[in-house]
Amino acid sequence: MSQFERVLTKSWAKPGNRSFAGYKANGGYDALPMALKMQPSEIIDTVKASNLRGRGGAGFPTGMKWSFVPKDSPKPKYLCINADESEPGTFKDRLIIEQEPHSLMEGIAIASYALGVHTCYIYIRGEYLEQAEILEKAIAECYEAGIFGKSVLGSGWALDVYVHRGAGAYICGEETALLNSLEGKKGWPRLKPPFPAVVGLFGSPTVVNNVETINTVPTIIKMGAEKYAALGTPKSGGTRLVCVSGHVNKPGVYEIPMTLTFDELIHGKEWCGGIPGGRKVKAVIPGGSSAPVLHHTELDVAAEYEALKAKDNMAGSGAVVVMDDSTCMVRALWRISKFYAEESCGQCTPCREGTPWMERILRKIEEGQGEHKDLALLKSVVNAIAPYPPIGLGTTICALGDAAALPVHSFVDKFREEFEQHINEHRCPFPHPFGILADEGVRS
């Protein structure tokens, strides 16, 4: 793996890289003039050929998503950058903004030109105050340099870019809830179809892309689609960023090849460097807390879309959470379920009623008050929200129901003996407090 070439993060941490001048000195803004010499359709075809897949969670092919925007629409078109990043364990987009905001700006300019967009919004979660300020500064530098404004690099193409801070609701990371929030409405997801590419922001064609997705576009233009695609697998081009947290010696954001397995990522010296204290891995959440958990016997799988899909799992948001053998899986699942119960928008019944129900059952088991019938009840409730497998066919309006259900399915299926031990012994076998104290322990 020593021959792996970083293409997204190679300039990170270089002095001054956050500024316009620093980014340009490191080779930035070379791709934009190249793109402006191309026809918009050529750029879309290039992104298609690169096999770039959306890095926000769904993994949908980016070029194909762009091609759904009607070319002859009389309405204005919009580009929305999803910088909400609210799922537990996710922080890679935050690092992109902190390390190289102008790469995102260059990607916005190229994508807007390709899509026929004159207005772009960057929707960022409310808690990312410092990152919002970084973006505002980068945007101001771009206006000053002629990257944004009435004529992008003198091309005659007008582009305005705005930062919009959300209020910190997880559901606003869902693309249609994000659009509602941008319009000043309650952040509730919309029924699809129609899809945003046709009826999106203010009823106009809109593309919603994740920060990492758009950040990758300048690299594709500079490298060429064929070379970029060759870095990945046949259906997943390039490299990707993962953010690793939990029980590893070196947590952080890593750019990885698509063929890297979770076992290599966790134990490799050039990556996370193993588990503290020489402990063993017990489980890994491969793509954010909404992804089904992997048992430690399942870690010889590449951290990419198709390989995980073959195991009824998903690459998701790239948030890898590692749990060693000291982890109580009941407590971990209870905490995840508590998050989704609190973040459900309440629009549809299975999610509004089911997520608190799951959380209450899990807390009961964790506190040593569970009964064997609770596991059957838990599975009944979770099946009413989203059966598993497959992924993405739940009974709710948006994917939050799936996100809440999939961890419960997988934790109970793969670690059932631990749930039964809690019930049989009327206690949690791991050394941590119960009840209110347990809740306080989680918050501390």
From TrEMBL:
A GO BP annotation = cellular respiration
What's the catalysed reaction? a quinone + NADH + 5 H(+)(in) = a quinol + NAD(+) + 4 H(+)(out)
Q: What does this protein do?
A: NDH-1 shuttles electrons from NADH, via FMN and iron-sulfur (Fe-S) centers, to quinones in the respiratory chain.
Q: Which residues form the signal peptide?
A: none
Annotated keywords: 4Fe-4S, Flavoprotein, FMN, Iron, Iron-sulfur, Metal-binding, NAD, Quinone, Translocase, Ubiquinone
Query: What family, per the record?
Result: Belongs to the complex I 51 kDa subunit family.
Indicate what this protein is called per its UniProt record: NADH-quinone oxidoreductase subunit F
Specify the NADH-ubiquinone oxidoreductase 51kDa subunit iron-sulphur binding domain's residue ranges. Answer: 330-375
**EC class of the enzyme, as a word:** translocase
SMART domains (UniProt xref): NADH_4Fe-4S (SM00928)
What GO molecular functions are on record for this protein?
A: 4 iron, 4 sulfur cluster binding; FMN binding; metal ion binding; NAD binding; NADH dehydrogenase (ubiquinone) activity; NADH dehydrogenase activity; quinone binding
| Pfam families membership | Complex1_51K, NADH_4Fe-4S, SLBB_2
Q: Which cofactor does it need?
A: FMN; [4Fe-4S] cluster
Q: What is its EC number?
A: 7.1.1.-
